[in-house]
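INFO  loader      accepted 1 record
INFO  loader      residues=581
INFO  predictor   begin
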Amino acid sequence: MRRFLPLGSLLLPALAVGLLLLPGARLPSAPLQFTVTFGPDVLAEAQDGRLLLLLATDEETEPRFQVRTGTQAIPVFGLDVEGWAPGEEKIIDAGAVGYPLASLADVPPGAYVVQAVLNRYETFDLATGHTVKLPPDRGEGQQWNRKPGNLFSTPRRMQIDPAAGGRLTIELDQQVPPIEPPVDTEWIKHVRVQSDRLTKFWGRPMYLGAHVLLPKGFAAHPEARYPLMLFHGHFPSDFGGFRTEPPDTTAPCVYSARFDVDCYNHVVEQEAYDFYQTWTSDDFPRFLITEIQHPTPYYDDSYAVNSASQGPYGDAIMYELLPAIEKQFRGLSEGWARFTYGGSTGGWEALAAQIFYPEDFNGAFGACPDPIDFRAYELVNIYEHANAYYEEGPFRRIERPAHRNYLGKVDYTVRDENHLERVLGSKGRSGGQWDIWQATYSPQGEDGYPKPIFDKTTGALDHEVATYWREHYDLRHILERDWATLGPKLRGKLHIYCGDMDNYYLNNAVYLMEDFLEKTTDPPYDGVVDYGDRAEHCWNGDHKNPNAISRLRYNTMYVPRILERIEESAPDGADLTSWRY
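INFO  predictor   done
INFO  writer      dumping tokens
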């Protein structure tokens, strides 16, 4: 689960002070407008995409890195553009959809740092017969504010007063540069394969990637074949949490507001170095650990399942990417020797991979998973509630929260998040959390885009779409429906962990899953469901350390349990020795 777009550390260029007004712009009869253009020196071809106007008062970082929900949200306005030619003017006015202000007319008068961004779309001719326009990933993990090739304007200070009106001009004069791919090291190797399945679905070459951490002695033991651990999560730019040098304690301290820890950057580097020392110690098991890249035009990853609007990512990962990794790096390539784990989005993916491919993995460790029972889709029951945004009674309605701290303080609501996504992209193209759930779980609409689970403006739920979700992706429902056949294949494989004060209320769905697993399964599931007292997102089963530490130890904390599972479940004749040097 990803909520906030990265703030980045870019400083603003020198800010030009003053207005850019055309003649007559101060006349009250002329409504406030922003005229946006780009020149042929920036891009020579006509463009499709989402044009965003951003207004900020903080000058320390560019507005494109300040977009968020909640009380610190900055005004953002958006509109779709198609066939936008160089030199052609596009107008953003009071009719453009906005967040947290509904309209440009609602902007309080004052001085703002103004920036415009074009998130560029490309045309995909799908195997389903539909044609859609979407932002392809360009190596950045579907981050519109730093996507290579996207256009943006140099930030400028402008005086804005909707009551006075005016016509202000902005030029998209810059383009986000390409991202350098990671480089292989002694320990970390990188894999990129073209997927035949995904290429066929999307109508163009589509790729999957992976970062593979090699065990100690890999080159010295060519006879060894290894178990594989698949660490699911968001788009990794490289293998994370592994560092061969001690932390740089001379680097300036970076405070973590999330954990209220000063110099957290030093903590992260120390944990990464500690992991390197553990990984290369004489008695640590020799495994392959892989983090995979499977971004889609909708999000930074696919949720690792087959879906109507995104295509067969589950099968592509299982039957194309993992075999390629295991062939290249001598994996055992058998279900008893594969394990998967992750937190949040990765927690849902780990559990879904185990459930949808029950004999291809020997255990899943799902921490703080995204909703695994859609009766608790955060605080929304998609089957019974009429509206996702409000708890409604005969005379009163209350907005549903979307984020809290461990004391219950609410930071923003479901409507907040979705109204920001509505600005960032129409037709589910925001790259946001709710839109990727929809892109993954929904049937495909007549226009080729995911069919909405609820109206993005009003929150009204579509129960026909909800029924489709239940039968295809509600993990608790699928387990209950199919336990007679799934149960024997999953016995001892499901391990679920969640804080009882998860920031996104994800513990509610875990309670419902626990009710089924603990009370009604026959055969028994023989797994684990565990909770962290007052623990926030993303608690992963560590009762000894705070989240700030335990979140950095996924790759070591589950190893003892994986070894136990291998020893108790490996079939006769399994290779239990070549990798135990």
